[in-house]
Structure formats: structure tokens, C-alpha cells
Amino acid sequence: MNEAWIAPEYDEQLEKLEIELLLEGLFRAYGYDFRHYAFPSLRRRIWHRIGLERLNTVSALQERVLHDREAFDRLLSDLVIPVTELFRDPGLFAYIREKLAPALGRLPFARIWHAGCASGEEAYSMAILLEEEGILSKSRIYATDINHAALKTARDRLVPCDRYEQYRKNYERSGGKADFALYVDGDPEDGFTLKRRLNERIVFAEHNLVTDRSFNEFHAIFCRNVMIYFNPELRNRVHRLLYESLADGGFLILGGKESISFTKYEDKYETWNDEFRVYRKIG
């Protein structure tokens, strides 16, 4: 029987130095920049991976991930933890259906960006909503993330059997206009996939909010529960990217614990809905 792994006693200054070196190594070797993420959360996740790898030091983890791409991918999955589901926060999608969809529908063509899309559930939720509002055919949804494994899952359109009922309830609570079963293929025994037509209007691509630049002009940007892991400097940097990527009058939708308050861009938006963190670019 394997003994339970226990984190060793550690000098705080040495630990901080080793973590800084690890993050610098990840940036230089793989282009993923976690150097300005909130330290306490980052530290916990790193030690979680050290334990799973049966190592004893941050330096040992650094050596492994720099020489083993699969080990890096395992660490990446810990540092970027996706928490998502179809129609997560149904009240938000009900609000989008009532207030934002009509505004998007008045455009000749709408471009929507889901930044940090994880395994794609939010983007598919938006595709279903836009289809029901009759504007998916003149829209393009861009869904990006830094985790290529999560993007593969998104492209595969998988719906875990144990999540089907929750997704159905979320859809109904969001104001869905049809039977949720119409959007999936399969059955409980074999598993479900979302209808292929839903991702015909979605472009999935790797994009790093920390290091990459804007790649288009958008009429709505969803960046929910991504910046809660960033320090103030990095949040301001990402807010600049989002602001520069929004068309005039475009909508920014953040997570429930996020806000434009105390950023350099808070006077560049008007608040449309404070509960759901919906803002509109005004200048």
C-alpha cells in the first residue's frame, strides 16, 4: 500500500524563488505566462501537482515539466481549472435573451468572443440561444482558450451522461424555447453529443489572454471567471485587450465576482446589469 504523500517543511523565501523560476521556465519553454497570477491560488495548485507527481520540491517539478511535455500538460490542467456547464447561471442567459440578443440582432453581422472558453459549453449555449432568436445565421462565435486539451473536448461536442439533466434544467431556466433533447444526439447508455450544426458557427482556437493580441473586433465579449486568478497588473492588461477588441457599443460580460471597478477602464463602459456584470462600451 502506498503511503499518503505529505508536503515537506519548506522555507517560504526559497519556495517563492522556486515558484518564480518554475513560472519563468514555463513562459520561456512553452509560452504560457502565469507570472502575474494570484500567488496563493497558484501555490496551492502547484503543490497539488507536486503531490500527484510524487515529488518533494518545486524545483523537481520544474525539471520534470521542462523535459516532459506530458508532465507540463498535467500541470497546465491544474493551473487552468475549467468550471463550466451549458447555460451556467441561467439568469444571465435569460437576460441576454431579453436584452442583448435584440441589440445583436439589429447588426448586419455579429461577432462574439468567448475568451477562456474551457470545454466550450458557454459558446454552445450562446449558439443555441442565438438560433432560437433567429440570428445565429448572421453571427460568428469565436471560442478561445490556452488549453488545447479542453479545446479538443469542445470540438467533440460531448455532453457527459451525468450532466445531461442539469444542462436540461439550466436550459429551461434560461428561457429556452424548445425541448432541450432537440439539441443533442445519443442516449443515456451510449452518451450524448450536441448537434453538429451548433458548431458550424463557432470557431475554436488557442489564444492566450496574457501574451496574445486582439485578433478581431467583436460586438460582445464573454470573459467570465478568468481574471479572478490574476493580480491587479495582469487584470488591467487583459482589460486593455478586451476594450481594444470591442466595437463601439459592444458588450462586455464578466463573471459574478469580477468587475470593471478599480480598473483603468471603468469610465469607458456603462453598466447594463450589475448583477450579471454586463457592461457596454461607450468610449
Key phrases:
283 residues; alpha/beta; 7-stranded mixed β-sheet; 41% helix; globular
Using the alpha-carbon principal axes, give the shape: globular
Distance between the termini: 63 Å
Task: Please report which band the strand proportion falls in: under 5%, 5-15%, 15-25%, 25-35%, 35-45% or over 45%.
Answer: 15-25%
Average pLDDT, rounded to a whole number, is 91
Number of domains: 2
The CATH architecture designation of the largest domain is: 3-Layer(aba) Sandwich
What is the CATH homology-level superfamily of the largest domain? Vaccinia Virus protein VP39
Strand arrangement in the largest pleated sheet: 6-2-1-7-8-10-9
The helix/strand order is HHHHHEHEHEHEEEEHEEE
Number of helices: 9
Q: Mind describing the biggest β-sheet?
A: 7 strands, mixed
How would the blueprint of this fold be written?
Layout: H1 12-30, H2 39-52, H3 58-67, H4 69-79, H5 90-105, E1 110-115, H6 121-132, E2 139-145, H7 148-156, E3 158-159, H8 164-173, E4 184-187, E5 191-194, E6 202-206, E7 218-223, H9 232-245, E8 246-254, E9 269-273, E10 278-281
Parallel strand pairs: 1-2, 1-7, 2-6, 7-8
Antiparallel strand pairs: 3-5, 4-5, 8-10, 9-10
